[in-house]
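Project outcomes to date are best conveyed with an example. Our students and postdoctoral researchers have been running inverse folding experiments weekly, and each run begins with a structure described purely in tokens. The record below, which covers 413 residues, was selected by the lab manager from last quarter's runs and is presented without edits.
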């Protein structure tokens, strides 16, 4: 979770920094693709990866008369119980809010009358009438398995014929671009990162970039309608921005949308180059983040607990090795599974007697247990390097201090 938070913070900061320059250079539509970066980087810590680093275990010394079994309990992972509980509660409330508003908007929507359908088909012949609904929050696009276009009941009275055509072009541009699904993804990420200040800062800017991209598409198709389009925006009634919907106009967006209409728009070549350049930028950022994770796993990954030996049976010193006076250090690379069981043991190439290698390998594979590496509270596979030192000379016993002398108790005569 902490790794995902780090990546999302980096992605949001980059998008907020680059969205305006990208819009001026390449146009609103290419700049909007920058918003792909936060969800892609959020998925990066959850992608499966092959174990790429080792953890060194302290050398284990084996003597001919070594104690048979040594057990050591590894410290458990740091508990994130209360922060996780708070996050779950906040995310659940945000998701319940979305479900409630969506259910209410679907219940309040009504079919469009036949007379209104005829007028709408006249204004926009290619409109999909199956997506049309009446709702007081319209004009807006509402996410659904098949996204809906909401129109206010007085739509024909509020706009003249040219304005209706432009509003419908704008809303069908939202449907064609799949903006309702983008909005749903943004709402879900906002629910996941409800505690993050950058998420709340980015949310209205994502909606603004969405509107600017659609405005640009409409004006690219009808450049002669710039004045009518600006007039329609100025005389539209502002409405509250409701979750799960893309309204025709939210008052905080008005100034930016009018400024975009007045500025010259990039040509097709610059737009195509912008899409390519920003796609390369997004891909490069993901590769750099992934490379940084693999190069500095402890620094970049959020919460890692290295594998520890929780049950260790000391290898038996082979009698043949004792007889032949064979010593040496066997270095084993152990692949530790998510359940703490050794999956594979590889012996480093060195000049050690085969009997010692066999004794060390058999003991680790059949009698050792590890606590697996923990990443973000989940067990993952990892490698542990285990040096096992076979020595014939038993270390001298530690001197035992004599007990303190107590004077004999005196008896009263």
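After processing, the design step wrote out the following sequence:
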């Amino acid at each position: 979770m902490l790794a995902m938070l780090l990546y999302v913070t980096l992605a949001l900061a980059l998008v907020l920094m680059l969205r305006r320059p990208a819009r001026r250079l390449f146009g609103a539509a290419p700049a909007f693709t920058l918003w792909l970066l936060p969800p892609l980087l959020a998925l990066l810590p959850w992608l499966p990866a092959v174990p790429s680093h080792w953890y060194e275990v302290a050398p284990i010394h084996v003597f001919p008369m070594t104690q048979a079994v040594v057990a050591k309990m590894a410290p458990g992972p740091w508990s994130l119980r209360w922060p996780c509980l708070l996050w779950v509660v906040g995310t659940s409330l945000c998701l319940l809010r979305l479900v409630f508003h969506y259910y209410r908007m679907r219940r309040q929507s009504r079919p469009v009358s036949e007379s209104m359908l005829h007028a709408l088909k006249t204004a926009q012949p290619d409109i999909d009438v199956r997506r049309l609904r009446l709702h007081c929050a319209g004009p807006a696009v509402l996410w659904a398995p098949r996204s809906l276009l909401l129109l206010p009941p007085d739509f024909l009275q509020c706009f003249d014929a040219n304005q209706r055509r432009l509003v419908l072009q704008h809303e069908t541009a939202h449907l064609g671009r799949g903006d309702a699904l983008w909005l749903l993804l943004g709402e879900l990420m906002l629910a996941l990162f409800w505690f993050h200040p950058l998420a709340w800062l980015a949310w209205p800017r994502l909606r603004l970039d969405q509107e600017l991209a659609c405005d640009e598409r409409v004006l690219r198709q009808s450049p002669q309608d710039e004045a009518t389009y600006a007039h329609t925006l100025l005389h539209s009634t502002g409405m509250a921005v409701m979750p799960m919907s893309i309204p025709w106009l939210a008052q905080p967006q008005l100034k930016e949308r009018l400024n975009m209409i007045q500025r010259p728009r990039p040509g097709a070549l610059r737009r195509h180059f912008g899409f390519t350049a920003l796609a390369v930028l997004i891909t490069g950022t993901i590769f750099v983040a992934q490379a940084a994770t693999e190069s500095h796993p402890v620094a970049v990954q959020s919460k890692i607990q290295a594998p520890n030996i929780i049950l260790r049976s000391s290898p038996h010193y082979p009698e043949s090795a004792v007889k032949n006076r064979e010593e040496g250090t066997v270095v084993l690379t152990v692949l530790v599974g998510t359940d703490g069981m050794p999956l594979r043991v590889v012996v480093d190439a060195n000049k050690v007697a085969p009997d010692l290698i066999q004794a060390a390998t058999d003991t680790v594979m059949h009698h050792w247990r590890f606590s697996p590496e923990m990443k973000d509270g989940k067990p993952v596979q990892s490698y542990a390097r285990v040096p096992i030192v076979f020595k014939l000379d038993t270390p001298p016993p530690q001197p035992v201090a004599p007990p303190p002398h107590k004077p004999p108790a005196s008896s009263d005569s």
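The CA atoms of residues 68 and 153 lie 84 Å apart. Residues 67-79, 295-304 have pLDDT under 50 and may be disordered. The training component of this project remains on track.
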